[in-house]
Structures are given as structure tokens and as C-alpha cells.
Amino acid sequence: MSAIKEKQAPKPLPFQWQFLAGAVAGVSEILTMYPLDVVKTRFQLQVGTGGADGYSSIGDCFKKIIKNEGFGTLYRGIIPPIMVEAPKRATKFAANEQYTILYRNILGQDVNKQALSILTGVSAGITESFLVVPFELVKIRLQDKANAGKYTGSVDALTKIVRQEGPLALYNGLEATVWRHAMWNGGYFGCIQGVRNAIPEADTSNGNLARNFIAGAIGGTFATMLNTPFDVVKTRIQNQAKGTVHKYNWTLPGVAIVYREEGFRALYKGFVPKVLRLGPGGGILLVVFDTVSNLIRKHVLLENV
């Protein structure tokens, strides 16, 4: 019965409810894990060892940020992600659901195979990219310690970027963002499907929550392994202000530059804080999304869950 039950995927929620469930999941994850994103960005912007003020480990980075800049710096730049997090994560899950329906109709598949999950994930990631680029750029500028006295906050950063660099500057790094999100979403949703196929469905709700968390955490970890080199280059592209020499312009050439000048390990700068965030964060995302979706099905749409 469990095998038959596994194949009977719940009917997708209407778009507005998918959007709401994704939004709640995204905000829950970022409020929990954001300081690790600040640490990740600091490592990605650090060329070489960073000199005397450089960071040698996650603990060292946390210690120096708190000691030299204050605890609040760990949440510096959180406003843009919070503003975009609801539509971003909502778009991730809602687009994934909608692409699943589309590709199933096109390909004639009734069962959500892993290859289909990868395809829908990549498509959802590309869609998500166009929404998040301006918010990512403002966040990166605020997280860089070199910009501590340049911007007083998110609105000030946005205003100065538009005034000094032009409105199109908000879309610097779009191509790199597409690479980053396509790789992450394809790896995340594809891996989730593989783990769910490997782990039998539980008989209890708590068991299924644990199963979803494991699937999401493994998916988040694997996706992070795939997309970190593109994230490193995206971060560097978006931190290049107008009037400076732009060393990084396109993603794949940027990856080659980092590899040639700093070695393979530099392509994974910030990987540990990133995976510490997006591994468990991926589990949190999936658990909250599925939980909110089931609550909507049961209490709003009055379905049997």
C-alpha cells in the first residue's frame, strides 16, 4: 500500500496557495539561517587569505564581525532578502509545481520521475533568477565590509546604486544568477525526488516530516555543491561598482579566472557556511512548504490529507 500511496502525488494546490506556502517557507528559512549568508559573502569576496583582516574559519569570521563591527552586522543587508524572500521562495515552489504540470502534459508522464524533477527545477530556477537579481545586488553591497561607510541602509544603497550607476546596474550579474539558481533548483528538486524514492513513506505525520527534512537537507547540500562556483562569481560580479575595473563580466570566464589565479579551492570559498545554511535550510524549506500546503488542503480547501 505504501508504494501505491507514494505514486499518488497530492493534487497541486491552486497557484495562489502554492505562492503562500512558498512564501511562509522562505521567510522561515531566512530568519533562521541569515547570519551564515553574511559569513559566506565575506569569504567569497576575500581574495587569497585577505591579509591581517582576513578570515581563517567560520568561527574566526563570526568573532571578527561581532568584535569589530557589532552583532547587528550579522543581519546587515537582511531587508532586501526579506522583501524578496516571500516572492522568491514562493516563485521557486509555485513555478516548480506549474512547470511539473506543464511538462507532464507535454511529456505524457503521470509519475514524477527524477529527470522530470530536474527539468522542472532548472526551469523554476531560471524563472526565479529574474526576480531576485536587484535584491541580491543590494544585499551583496551591504554585506561587504568595504562598503560599511558607503551605505547607511537598504534604501540608501538602492538610491545610490541607481543614481551613480544607472537603473540597469541593478541587473548586473543576471547571467550568473541564472546559472546559480538553475543549478541549485535542478539539483535540489532532483535530489529530493531521488531521496523520496529511496526512503519509504512513513506511517505517521512526524515520520513524514523527518523524511521530508532529510530529503530537503540532502537536496540542499547537493545543490550547494553544484552551484557554489557560480555563486562565487556572481558575488564578485555584483560587487563591482561603476568606475572600477570590472575583472569579472561573464560567468564561465569568471570561473576560469578564479580557478587560474586562486586555484580550485577558491571556487568553493564560503562553501562551509553556505552548506551549513542551505543544507538544513533546504530541509526547513521543504518541511514548512509541505506542512503549510497540507494545512491549506485540510482547513481551507477541505480536502482529506
UniProtKB/TrEMBL annotation:
Subcellular location(s) of the protein: Mitochondrion inner membrane
GO MF entry, a single one: ATP:ADP antiporter activity
SUPFAM superfamilies according to UniProt: Mitochondrial carrier (SSF103506)
PROSITE patterns: SOLCAR (PS50920)
GO cellular component entries: mitochondrial inner membrane
Topological type in the membrane: Multi-pass membrane protein
Pfam families reported in the protein's UniProt record: Mito_carr (PF00153)
The entry's keywords: Membrane, Mitochondrion, Mitochondrion inner membrane, Repeat, Transmembrane, Transmembrane helix, Transport
Chief localisation class: mitochondrion
Alphabetized InterPro entries for the sequence: ADT_euk_type (IPR002113), MCP (IPR002067), MCP_dom_sf (IPR023395), MCP_transmembrane (IPR018108), Mito_2-oxodicarb_carrier (IPR051752)
Ranges occupied by Solcar repeats: 13-102, 112-198, 207-295
Superkingdom field: Eukaryota
Example of a GO biological process term: mitochondrial ADP transmembrane transport
Protein family per UniProt: Belongs to the mitochondrial carrier (TC 2.A.29) family.
Record-given protein name: Mitochondrial carrier domain-containing protein
Organism: Lobosporangium transversale
Upper taxonomic lineage: Eukaryota, Fungi, Fungi incertae sedis, Mucoromycota, Mortierellomycotina
